[in-house]
Amino acid sequence: MIKIYKLHKNQDGIALMVVLWILVLLMALATEFAFSMKSEVNTTRNYKEDIQAYHWAKAGIHLAMAEILAPSSFHASHKDFGLIMEDVTKKSETGQTQSDVTTFLYPNRKNIQYGSGLITYSIVDENRKIPINTTERIILVKVLTSAGIESKEKKDVIADSILDWIDIDKEYRLNGAENDYYQSLTPPYNPKNARIESLDELINIRGIDEKILYGTDQHKGLINFFTPYNVKTNPNTASPEILSILFSESQEKEIMKQREERGFYDKTTSNYFTIRSTGAIDGSPTIHTIKTVVQKLSGEKNPILLTHFWNDNSF
After folding, report:
1. 3-class SS at 228?
2. How far apart are CA 199 and CA 165, in angstroms?
3. DSSP assignment, residue 102?
4. Is the pLDDT score of 123 beyond 60?
5. Any idea what DSSP says for residue 93?
6. CA spacing 20 to 30 A to 122: which of 41, 46, 56, 174?
7. What are phi and psi of 123, to 5 degrees?
8. CA distances (Å), 28 to each of 14, 19, 38, 131, in order?
């Protein structure tokens, strides 16, 4: 007798594996979705906080502008407060302005609370430096010496090359450089033959490298001595190094003595100012910094500010 056996196919194991793989796939999709949503939330929050910080930084710019526009008979420098000025609006008991009394404004420019944010700004006058576009060769050489360059040959090359870069003609000075020199470089380029608008341009001038321009731990760079703006150097705010370049030794000592004793040397005012303002949010690492350079113009009625430079995202 022949027995016939039937093969029973059990599909339960395969179905279980399919279900498990589907669950794994769904978990992966859910994890990816959650991660994506978290990233979107963080991006949105960061964008929102950056916008808030930007407007707080902008508010700091306007606070600084209001401070600059305030009446003042001189601008000086204070070790704790930076740029300061004389308050010429203070009245005596008789109602007269006390022009002979020195009263300094000490504004709080750090961590000013505004809603849930903080504003910090600084004002630095460009008049504390030397105007590079109008300076004489002898001053250039003195600055290069203060910047740590000892070689006379190198100082002559840089000084003449700076003057050649600024002047409008194509004739080079004894140690300078014009079109033929810059065209021989790789890549070649032409000298500007016009006034310097940004000190970063100096890196393109013959003989100047990053160490000379930006300085080292041992020596200050050219950016610490020069400004591209047409200013009159303010002895109340200039550094001792700049005073030693522009004045005799006896004059420098007298200026520093007066600044230490009464806070200023003379009634010189500044008219170009660099403002750097940072907005921050309490409990958040988000900050935003704006940098601008303004010129104070004295009108017939009220002074006005002319903006020469604006950087919405300064670092």
Report:
1. coil
2. 12
3. -
4. yes
5. T
6. 46
7. -125, 125
8. 21, 14, 15, 64
| 274 CB burial (10 A radius; 0-12, 13-18, 19+) | buried
User: From CA 29, how far away is CA 36, in angstroms rounded?
Assistant: 10
Whole-angstrom distance, CA of residue 155 vs CA of residue 145? 8
> Hey, what long-range contacts does 145-151 have (CB within 8 A, 24 or more apart)?
146/219, 146/220, 146/225, 146/241, 146/244, 146/245, 147/212, 147/215, 147/219, 147/220, 147/221, 147/222, 147/225, 148/216, 148/218, 148/219, 149/212
Q: Which residue has the tokens 């949503």?
A: 37
> Using 50, 70 and 90 to split pLDDT, how confident is the model at 134?
very high
Residue 307 CA to residue 158 CA, distance in Å, equals 31
Helix count (H) and strand count (E) of the chain?
Answer: 7, 9
In the chain, alpha helices (H) = 12-69, 137-146, 152-166, 179-183, 210-214, 240-246, 249-262
